[in-house]
């Protein structure tokens, strides 16, 4: 038995292209149904200096891009998302959060038996990008954690205590020191790096490159 193909994804929950990249990776993997893969999510913060209470999202975007351009970017993102099955929305009052606590939660998920880190990251993406929930809030995060089998009360207390924040900050620093400056960034089996929300074909090419013709033939069946 060959070991699974490792796919490491460096991402940030607030990054819409990370959500798009996740969907495109899933489309590629659906075309290799016999290929065993292990996808692990690693932290990155696009706005590490965001206040822990976050900011109003529309005001935050307008402050970065200007009101008109921010509206245009959000509209284009909706069109891109629609093609991938993501109903992007920024409802009134939606927050731009500090994502450190969300990354801590994902770190715990990766180290907790019986918890699907991929299911958790999907729920976090949807909470932020579709429903406009505040994924910087420990209360919101504890509720989401309970949906994947984690103990909400334990998660809430640990998040409020700042448990493992130093560990996650160190992982973010490692990604930056390794040259990751933007997300999503995909590392396929430690051999191929892909930056950005690549089309499914790019993922397929990378997978075929690392598995070789023998595995590729078996994966096609």
Could you explain how this protein is built, in words?
With 221 residues, this protein is an alpha+beta fold. It has nine helices and six strands; from the N terminus they run βαββααβαααααββα. The chain has helices at residues 16-30, 57-65, 67-84, 100-110, 117-129, 138-146, 152-161, 165-177, 200-219, and strands spanning 5-11, 37-43, 55-56, 95-96, 185-188, 192-195. It starts with a strand and ends with a helix. Mean pLDDT is 94; it is low at 214-221.
Radius of gyration: 18 Å
Q: Would you tell me the overall average pLDDT?
A: 94
Strand order of the largest sheet: 2-1-5-6
Low-confidence stretches: 214-221
Relevant terms:
4-stranded mixed β-sheet, alpha+beta, disordered C terminus, 6 strands
């Amino acid at each position: 038995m060959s070991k699974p193909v490792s796919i490491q994804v460096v991402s940030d929950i607030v990054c819409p292209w990370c959500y798009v990249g996740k969907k495109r990776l899933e489309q590629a993997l659906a075309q290799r149904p016999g290929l065993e893969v292990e996808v692990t999510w690693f932290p990155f913060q696009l706005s590490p200096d965001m206040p822990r209470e976050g900011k109003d999202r529309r005001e935050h975007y307008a402050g970065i891009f200007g009101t008109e351009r921010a509206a245009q970017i959000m509209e284009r993102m909706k069109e891109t998302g629609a093609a991938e099955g993501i109903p992007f929305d920024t409802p009134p009052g939606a927050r731009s959060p500090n994502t450190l606590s969300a990354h801590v939660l994902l770190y715990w998920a990766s180290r907790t038996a019986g918890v699907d880190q991929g299911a958790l990251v999907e729920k976090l993406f949807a909470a932020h990008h579709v429903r406009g929930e505040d994924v910087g809030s420990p209360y919101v995060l504890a509720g989401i954690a309970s949906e994947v089998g984690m103990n909400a009360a334990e998660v809430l207390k640990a998040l409020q205590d700042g448990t493992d924040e130093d560990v996650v900050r160190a992982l973010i620093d490692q990604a930056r020191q390794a040259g990751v400056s933007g997300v999503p960034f995909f590392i396929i089996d430690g051999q191929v790096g892909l930056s950005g929300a690549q089309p499914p074909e790019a993922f397929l090419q990378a997978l075929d490159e690392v598995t070789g013709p023998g595995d590729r033939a078996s994966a096609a069946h």
